[in-house]
Amino acid sequence: MIVFLVFLALLTQNRVSQPESCPLEIAQFRYDGETQSRPGHATLKLTNTTSKTVRAAIMKLAAVDAIGDVRDFAVTPELELTHAIKAGETRKATWDIHTPEMQKLKVWVNAVRFDDGTVWRDDGSRSCSKQ
Fold first, then answer.
1. pTM: predicted TM-score of the whole model, two decimal places
2. Reduced to 3 states, what is the DSSP secondary structure of residue 65?
3. Taking a C-beta distance cutoff of 8 angstroms, is the pair 110, 78 a contact?
């Protein structure tokens, strides 16, 4: 019984946390596809919905086809957030994308690292997303 309790205590101290809600809300998602004169550009506004400071985040993109099916990119462009987002704060993040002008996209929060070292990871549901 004592071994089980010690094992249970070690499991609860795991450095990976999975909050019930999204730690980063995608408040805004805007993108312009590439043209002959410029690369495409995506802009996000992310709001920290937790009481912790977010130190890093990885966002992922997928294409949405004409039927509405989501198609992951073979090589997924990722956005790595490099500026901390304090609790309740909203920050803007941008990156270049290489998609046609009229391509529909979906973005989701893939992982978040907090200032205390814990990490939230998407469970595969992509529930923290915007299209």
1. 0.73
2. coil
3. yes
